[in-house]
Amino acid sequence: MSGPTPPPLPDDLVAALDALAARRPLLVALDFDGVLAPLVDDPSASRPLPASATAIARLADADDVHLALVSGRDLAGLARLATPPTGTWLVGSHGAEHGEQTPDGVHAVPLDLTPDQRAQHRELVAGLERVAAGAEGAWVETKPTAAVLHTRRTPPDQAAGAVEAAVAVATGLGLDAMRGKDVVEVAVLATSKGQAVVALRERLAGERSVDVGDVGVLYAGDDTTDEHAFEVLGDGDVSVKVGDGDTVAGARVADPASVAALLAHLADAVAAPGTSA
After folding, report:
1. How many CA within 13 A on the CB side of residue 159?
2. So where does this one cross the membrane (predicted)?
3. Domain boundaries, the chain
4. Helix, strand or coil for residue 250?
5. Which CATH architecture group holds 115-187?
6. Which CATH superfamily is domain 11-111+192-271 in?
7. I want to staple 249 with a disulfide (CB 3.0 to 4.6 A). Which of 141, 146, 239, 272 is the partner?
8. Please, which residues have CB within 8 angstroms of residue 115's CB and are 6 or more apart in sequence?
9. What is the set of active-site residues?
């Protein structure tokens, strides 16, 4: 059963997408949760909307267009749930993990922590587990370079205290805490989605033997961590905030259904005669 039809895309966003569609090479970089997939209480149940899956498959098949997923999820989990097209570049753990979807699964770039970082990671996980034990519905997700306290199912009065306690754990270990939607994530490696998008743009420019500034970029995200990605985009790029909240993005849409419409429009524009370089 299909959901409600999303509202029409804003005219200025349509114009920006049409202009972006003429640029080559083109990088289409997207967050997963809250963007391609609706937010759900059980993270393991997240799946892309069918319309989004169709649109990104079309974009992945287009000439000189490259697809990337940039997520806070660990790399293996991102690939398993997103089921991206072959050739998609994958960035997990907010930029700490990198890989590519192949016909045989994910080819991941090896990631090694120092002995000190591994010890810090163990202390971090243990500290957040203690916080979760004191808050109803809270739980801890362990990633290769980070740990995440989830409070989506925690009563609001307990969630606020758990968030502050998680931040205190991070501070005690000399680490920074990233607050997102019902999560606090703490990493033992300093990374960001902004750094990841810069690296992806540079990689695409290098593979196509063009200047970095010649690469057009679309980035869509819904969380506070996506603001770092919006900040590194330039003139002619398109940044899209999904949902409510303050943002530096140039455009906003309401929800994943609107993202599906946006991606379908871009796929149509990219395929239109005369748009490819």
Report:
1. 14
2. none
3. 11-111+192-271, 115-187
4. coil
5. 2-Layer Sandwich (3.30)
6. HAD superfamily/HAD-like (3.40.50.1000)
7. 239
8. none
9. 31
